[in-house]
Amino acid sequence: MINNRSRNEMRVHRHRRLRKHIAGTGVCPRLSVFRSLKHIYAQLIDDEAGNTILAASSLDKSLSGTLKSGGDQEAAKSVGRLIAERALAKGISSVVFDRGGHIFRGRVKALADAAREVGLKF
Question: Which of 10-19, 20-29, 80-89 has the lowest mean pLDDT?
Fold first, then answer.
């Protein structure tokens, strides 16, 4: 049987499969990561209430002058640090990590490691 799904359709399929087991709450929200070719985005989501608590991306105004590119590992590290600092400022210390169907390496891993360095637990 030949798989006729595109790369993005396969990622969405993996993400749906993962989301059956991952859910964020108000106390321990879900850290969702989305990456495009040019940028990387992270959100803290409360799935019980259906709200986004915090968000950070490589397009953020606080990071605009410091990044060469929004789609490299340095940008991912900056976004990871930024989301972790904002979460700790709001009193959130632990999260559930949602890699968005991507393999845990490269930019996704860089974002997670940077968030852990600042003090976010997952």
Answer: 20-29
